[in-house]
Design goal:
alpha/beta; 2 domains; 6 strands
Length: 267
């Protein structure tokens, strides 16, 4: 038992040292004859200075709403499914639907009609029609289901118009964009959530439930991955935007599909 405790202490100490090195940026991995300071260095991310008096929004609470009034932007692939799911949530009123193509808006209107919901206001025909939706004074939440390139722009504008925001993955395409999103959420005091759908899938929630009931014991290490084969969907991306992005950028486009559910296991 003492040997096990001693080993555990060394593991904790080593982990602490590695964390210290990564945070201070003082690491010097000089192997294979390399001079000190010329080896692998930790990735550094500059954090913009927060404005005076501005605070984070992780614990943000908003006044309770008896009815949440929602507007949807983007009704192509995932949008209609989002609209349909919201018809099952008590206390929801779907106020407005927006897509560049009018036929997509009409298809989502049919979803509302089938569910017994009143038809929503329609916005289409213009690349900027979504701004009109955001400017309405009878919407509490804007749900964004468009292509990646417009996510950050729409989130920022919606919050500036006094709306809470929910957005499909990924929330932004650059560090500059995501820091603007963080800053705007803090400044406007609006909820801004990236909808990492894999966190809420059946398998992931089942695994999380098992972990919280102690079926795996104390969890000390997790790994996550996601095999994203889109072979059956390439024809559905307008203008081939998804394929063009994957051809230009290698690697994991949104790693939160894998490590999002895994991180929950450590909470």
């Amino acid at each position: 038992m003492q040997r096990g405790i001693k080993f555990h202490s060394w593991v904790v100490l080593l982990a602490g040292l590695l964390l210290l090195i990564s945070c201070t940026g003082k690491a010097s991995f000089s192997g294979s004859g390399e001079k000190a300071g010329t080896g692998i260095q930790p990735i550094r991310t500059e954090v913009p200075e927060r404005a005076a008096g501005q605070t984070y929004v992780l614990g943000l609470t908003a006044p309770k709403l008896d009815t949440v009034r929602v507007g949807f932007i983007g009704l192509g692939m995932r949008g209609p499914g989002a609209v349909e799911r919201f018809t099952h949530i008590p206390g929801v009123k779907i106020v407005a639907l927006c897509d560049k193509h009018a036929d997509r808006v009409e298809r989502s209107q049919q979803i509302l009609d089938k569910a017994g919901f009143p038809l929503a206001a329609s916005y289409s025909g213009s690349a900027d029609a979504w701004k009109e939706l955001c400017q309405r004074d009878d919407i509490d939440l804007v749900y964004i289901v468009t292509d990646w390139q417009h996510h950050a722009e729409m989130m920022l504008y919606a919050m500036e118009q006094g709306k809470h925001v929910a957005c499909e993955v990924p929330a932004a395409m650059t560090l500059e964009e995501i820091w603007k999103v963080v800053d705007t959420a803090e400044r406007t005091r609006k909820h801004c959530m990236m909808l990492e759908n894999c966190v809420y899938d059946f398998f992931e929630l089942t695994t999380l439930n098992m972990a919280r009931h102690g079926l795996f014991g104390e969890i000390l290490h997790v790994e996550g991955g996601y095999l994203h084969n889109l072979e059956d969907f390439w024809d559905y991306y307008e203008g081939d935007w998804r394929m063009r992005y994957n051809k230009a950028h290698r690697g994991d486009v949104y790693p939160t599909h894998g490590f999002g559910p895994a991180c929950q296991l450590l909470d």
